[in-house]
């Protein structure tokens, strides 16, 4: 098989997030700014995705004022510091094919200018012209200097504690070019 390149269609692709705290959870979306992946000779695969941290939306808070306050807080330095770091990145550094359209991938996740390795499995279904990638990445926010209400850094938080891990559920539709 020749090398085949795919570009993520940002209109048809989604990243859903879930953050949990003692008293419940919040969820929303975050935009994909750009992305591509390549299938090379044999079973090699690589890719890089750019996430727009300024596009964080909260879906579970209906009150407009509360929703705006929360969105502004997520954009602040307590969380993603979106003004200084408008983009986050995930770059696949190694991928091994598995059964049933799975790839076991290692990659580098960069948030707030801080990079850490992440292991995940990618479910990829591809045809000649389209590839659909699905994965779930569990992120320990404290590794990226997101410490707000983390028990790793603060005591006596009671029911205001926010758990360190949040989930990114990624669904990319990409077209061959």
TrEMBL record:
Q: InterPro entries per the record?
A: Lipid/polyisoprenoid-bd_YceI (IPR007372), TTHA0802/YceI-like_sf (IPR036761)
Pfam families reported in the protein's UniProt record: YceI
Domain named Lipid/polyisoprenoid-binding YceI-like: residues? 5-175
Q: Which domain of life is it from?
A: Bacteria
> Entry's PANTHER family?
PROTEIN YCEI (PTHR34406:SF1)
Q: What is this protein called?
A: YceI family protein
Q: What is the organism field in this record? A: Chryseobacterium cucumeris
């Amino acid at each position: 098989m020749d090398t085949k390149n795919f570009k993520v269609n940002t209109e048809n692709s989604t990243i859903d997030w879930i953050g949990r705290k003692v008293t419940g959870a919040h969820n929303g979306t975050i935009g994909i700014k750009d992305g591509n992946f390549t299938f090379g000779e044999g079973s090699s695969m690589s890719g890089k995705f750019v996430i727009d941290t300024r596009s964080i939306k909260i879906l579970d808070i209906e009150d407009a004022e509360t929703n705006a306050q929360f969105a502004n807080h997520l954009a602040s330095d307590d969380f993603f510091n979106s003004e200084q770091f408008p983009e986050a990145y995930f770059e696949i550094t190694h991928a091994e094919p598995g059964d049933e359209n799975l790839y076991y991938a290692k990659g580098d996740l960069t948030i707030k200018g801080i990079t850490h390795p992440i292991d995940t499995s990618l479910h990829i279904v591809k045809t000649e012209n389209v590839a659909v990638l699905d994965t779930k990445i569990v992120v320990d926010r404290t590794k990226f200097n997101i410490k707000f209400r983390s028990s790793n850094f603060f005591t006596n938080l009671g029911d205001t504690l926010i758990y360190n891990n949040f989930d990114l559920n990624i669904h990319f539709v990409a077209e061959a070019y």
